[in-house]
């Protein structure tokens, strides 16, 4: 493996580890506080990071397998097959607070989107896996064509609903909720920019480092957006 692949794989592992830790901590907080939102947003963040799972897994496998990672098919399955499920989970969290009267329609729309996503993805995977991306083993992929549109649709759904969620939180009269709203706004912006930069990387070391730092920052901001850190709570009291 060359230096870029090692750097890419290492940052993927760091980002995935931090994100699973963030999501897992939020899920644990749900079991402690019985606050349903924490379960939903914890699962959401774990799902949003799914595109970086296969590069982490493949990199680890390659380290112990003479530079050979997981297969192309396995790579696509790990990183993409469950994406629409987590979109649905996020929409469940979103409609806990907003558009409550239209919740059923939004979730049905999300379900239709999930079915279409899975149908197109699995069709591409079975009929023309090389049409999903330009795959450079063990971990470098460049999504293209129809699947690139699908991947971008996930970012669009998350970003638009997330920005609305943040905006409404910032506009509330409760100071604590406003602060959380700013953290959420930062998280959604960081995720969107980081994901786009990450997808645009063409063996650029500096851009890779910047993109992953932005993504890691987004994970921390997501956590602060739902679970206020104690040092901030003390300042607000």
* CATH class group: Mainly Alpha
Distance between the termini: 52 Å
Major sheet strand order: 1-2
Enumerate the spans where pLDDT stays under 50 for 5 or more consecutive residues.
none
Number of helices: 10
**Oligomeric state of the chains present here:** single chain
Structure summary, number of beta strands: 2
Looking at the structure, the CATH topology is Rhopdopsin 7-helix transmembrane proteins
Largest sheet: 2 strands, antiparallel
Content of β-strand: under 5%
Radius of gyration: 18 Å
CATH hierarchy: architecture? Up-down Bundle
Give the fraction of residues assigned to helices. over 70%
Following the backbone from N to C, one meets helices and strands in this order, namely: HHHHHHEEHHHH
Tally of distinct domains: 1
Shape: globular
Structural class based on helices, strands and sheet pairing: mainly alpha
């Amino acid at each position: 493996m060359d230096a870029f692949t090692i750097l890419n794989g290492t940052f993927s592992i760091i980002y995935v580890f931090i994100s699973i830790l963030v999501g897992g901590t939020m899920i644990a907080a749900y079991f402690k506080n019985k606050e349903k939102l924490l379960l939903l947003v914890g699962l959401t963040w774990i799902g949003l990071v799914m595109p970086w799972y296969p590069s982490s897994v493949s990199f680890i496998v390659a380290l112990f397998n003479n530079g050979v990672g997981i297969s192309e098919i396995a790579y696509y399955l790990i990183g993409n097959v469950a994406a629409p499920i987590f979109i649905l989970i996020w929409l469940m969290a979103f409609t806990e607070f907003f558009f409550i009267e239209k919740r059923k329609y939004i979730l049905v729309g999300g379900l239709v989107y999930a079915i279409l996503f899975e149908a197109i993805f699995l069709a591409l995977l079975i009929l023309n896996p090389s049409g999903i991306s330009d795959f450079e083993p063990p971990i470098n992929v460049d999504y293209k064509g129809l699947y690139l549109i699908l991947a971008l649709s996930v970012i669009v759904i998350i970003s638009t609903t997330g920005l609305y969620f943040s905006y409404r939180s910032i506009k509330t009269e409760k100071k604590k909720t406003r602060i959380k709203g700013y953290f959420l706004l930062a998280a959604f912006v960081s995720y969107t920019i980081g994901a786009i930069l990450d997808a645009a990387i063409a063996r650029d070391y500096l851009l890779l480092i910047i993109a992953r730092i932005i993504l890691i920052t987004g994970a921390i901001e997501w956590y602060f957006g739902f679970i206020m850190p104690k040092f901030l709570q003390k300042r607000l009291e």
